[in-house]
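We now fix the convention by which a protein and its fold are recorded. The integers have meaning only within a learned vocabulary of local backbone shapes. The record below shows the convention in full.
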Amino acid sequence: MAHEATNDNPYTRGIAEFVSGLQYEAIPAEVLTRIKLLMLDSIGCAIYGADLEWTRIMRNTLGKLDTSNGCAIWATGQRISAPHAALINGTQVQGFELDDVHRQGVLHVGAVVLPALIAITEMKPGMSGKEFLASAVAGYEIGPRVGIAMGAEHIAQGWHSGATLGVFSAAAGAARGLKLDVDKTVHAIGIAGTQSAGLMAAQYGAMVKRMHAGRSSQSGLYGALLAEQGFTGILNVLESEYGGFCSTFSRSQDRFDLKELTAGFGEVWQTMGIALKFYSCVGSNHSTLDAIRLMQEEKAFGKNDVEKIIVRGSQVTMDHVGWKYSPQGLTSAQLNLPYCVATWLIEGDCFVDQFTEDKVADPERMALAEIVEVQHDEEITKQGSKRRHKVHVEVRLKDGTKMNRTVEAGRGNEKNFASEADVVEKFEKLATHVLPRPQVEKIRDFMLGLDKVQDATQLSKLLVKS
């Protein structure tokens, strides 16, 4: 089939114009307040992630191959080149299913933006806190829009959206951090977009799922750094009918909406659409866990009281987390809804201490997981990506009681965002696993006071484990 060559790129260029032109003063105060909390949360996730097996393997392996010392690997004393730092630090943020999620755009945003942007502060010291905030917002605004444009079909057909979309957020944040002009930002996006990748089958137990965000951050960093030096990318990487991101990563032309790529710039802030996690598992599970928690507040019940739990959710929920549990490692445990429900019933929580290797094949959890049935609710699916986490949960107790609860989104969601105290508490709980409390408090204060910081390079120095 012949395809007419064209470089028309109103959406890619529209994104570049927004990113290149974004000024700190144009960002609403509520967005600035929110992004400081979002970034603090991501850094807490990364600090906790530094001591996990998969990040240790990656750090040791790459450390043998790369002896340069340009950038810090967070919460360690190790240094490495900027691209490998972005890869490892992004892996740490996404390392234990604790980090943020833009539910409609289906993207873990901090894990792809911050590693690339912080690497740039180390390579080119002197970026003010306000410039850092503007650059971060530029990154946080773009990836979710690409996800909204693609719709739920993108993840439903097997792409790990957090990985595929992430390159655009990473490139945008890095390009703004380098102060690239519009033309070079177009190229940065075009270089990053062609590196997009990530397969959802990684959810069934592979360590590589943790690496997807790091690779996206690395790809975005490459895009910005190469574009800065005159390297060219695909000018219409998002629009091209043949080989463009949207046309290639969707089954058909009517499954995506290009207008969403630039919709509402300067008026609608997608940063405000990012939710936080207070359970250490994939976001699709949180609404069910909250439904059970809320029902337990009405009538106390535990693991021995339950006969059956039926969860009705979207097709994405079915495919993403509703599969029959089989012990294949921590990744599969954290992504499987029946396992997480069983964990909640046994322990009354689903945070970091509830997910350890010795519990992956725990007979009690596996038996309880069998009483959880996940069903497709066509009406929820029809409501689209904005409602993809919505669930109707029915709990049947052995005494004959039937309880029902509908939850659209879990705690910390964008419509009922967590308080600063809740975000700080989570950050400190995670970070003190790895770093001493005085250092944790300095990082906290630095992030919450970023707008007053003269040189954002100090952040990477605060993140070094002595």
User: Anything to note?
Assistant: DSSP finds 21 helices and eight strands in the chain. The beta strands are 71-72, 79-80, 101-102, 274-275, 306-313, 372-376, 391-397, 402-407. The chain has a mean pLDDT of 94.
